[in-house]
Design brief:
104 residues; alpha/beta; 34% helix; globular
Length: 104
């Protein structure tokens, strides 16, 4: 959000939730349940997009490279968040609320 936007105005447009796995898995089901509740509570659609590939790396990197405006979210399992950065030397992203890129 920019300094001009207040938290009360979020979301002012549809929000995308990327799942870095193929469709039809338990993570997608749980995310759809949460997205439905968020849409009802906040008055904007929360759209689910499956972005499979490279054990979750493609979808995760897509979210990490998106603008940090809160309109592209990641729904991932613990393996993607904890293991992928340690197994893929090309991953280059660290799961942190304060940093979007690793120092590599």
């Amino acid at each position: 959000m920019t300094a001009q936007q207040s938290p009360a105005s979020y979301p002012s447009k549809p929000v995308k939730i990327v799942i870095p796995l193929g469709p039809g898995n338990s993570l997608e089901i749980a995310t759809r349940l949460v997205a439905e509740k968020l849409s009802a509570a906040l008055g904007q659609p929360f759209v689910i997009e499956a972005q499979p590939g490279a054990a979750g790396q493609i979808g995760t990197e897509r979210v990490a490279r998106s603008p940090a405006d809160g309109y592209t979210l990641l729904s991932a399992n613990d393996g993607i968040i904890t293991m992928l950065p340690n197994l893929q030397s090309t991953f280059g992203l660290i799961p942190s609320a304060t940093s979007r890129r690793s120092p590599r």
